[in-house]
C-alpha cells in the first residue's frame, strides 16, 4: 500500500528538481527589433509563445530577466536568459534635456517562463500548490476507498 507521506515527499522533490532536470526556459525578445515585445504581456496570447526559449545558449542559465527603460536612446523592453541574478528594482531616470522622468525596472526570476509579466511567477506558484493539494486529496480518497 502507498504511504501518503512518501508520495507527498516524492511530489515535492520532483517539483523542486523540475528546473534542474529540464533547465530554465525564458522569454527572450527586444522591443528595438520586435514591436510585439512590450512591457506588459498577456501570457495567454499565442504571439508570446514564439519568444519562449530553453536557454541552452546561455552557460549555466538560472534566471529570466525582464528590463524596461531607455536602451540606445529609446524607451523599450528586453527579456532574456541569464546566469546572473540582476536583482529586482525600479528607478526613475531623467536624461539631460528631457522634461520628464522615465521609470526603468529590472525584474529577475528563476522559474520556467516567469518573465512575460510580473504576475506569472505568482501564477506558477499557485498552480504548483494547487497540483500538490489536488494530488494529496486524490491519494487520501484512494487510500480511504482501499481501507473500506
From TrEMBL:
Signal peptide: 1-23
Pfam (any one): QVR
Superkingdom to which the source organism belongs: Eukaryota
Keyword Acyltransferase: no
GO aspect biological process, one term: sleep
Coiled-coil ranges (or none): none
InterPro entries to which the protein is assigned, alphabetical: QVR-like, Sleep_regulator
Keyword Glycoprotein belongs to the record: yes
UniProtKB keywords: Glycoprotein, Signal
PROSITE patterns associated with the record: PROKAR_LIPOPROTEIN (PS51257)
Stated name of the protein: Protein sleepless
Organism: Tigriopus californicus (Marine copepod)
Upper classification of the organism: Eukaryota, Metazoa, Ecdysozoa, Arthropoda, Crustacea
Amino acid at each position: 500500500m502507498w504511504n501518503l507521506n512518501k508520495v507527498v515527499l516524492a511530489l515535492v522533490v520532483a517539483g523542486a528538481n523540475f528546473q534542474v532536470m529540464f533547465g530554465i526556459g525564458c522569454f527572450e525578445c527586444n522591443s528595438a527589433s520586435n514591436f510585439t515585445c512590450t512591457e506588459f504581456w498577456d501570457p495567454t496570447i499565442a504571439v508570446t509563445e514564439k519568444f519562449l526559449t530553453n536557454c541552452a545558449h546561455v552557460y549555466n542559465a538560472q534566471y529570466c530577466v525582464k528590463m524596461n527603460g531607455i536602451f540606445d536612446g529609446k524607451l523599450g523592453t528586453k527579456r532574456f536568459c541569464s546566469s546572473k541574478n540582476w536583482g529586482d528594482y525600479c528607478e526613475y531616470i531623467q536624461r539631460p534635456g528631457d522634461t520628464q522622468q522615465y521609470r526603468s525596472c529590472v525584474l529577475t526570476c528563476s522559474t520556467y517562463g516567469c518573465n512575460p509579466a510580473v504576475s506569472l511567477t505568482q501564477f506558477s506558484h499557485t498552480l504548483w500548490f494547487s497540483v500538490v493539494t489536488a494530488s494529496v486529496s486524490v491519494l487520501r480518497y484512494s487510500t480511504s476507498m482501499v481501507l473500506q
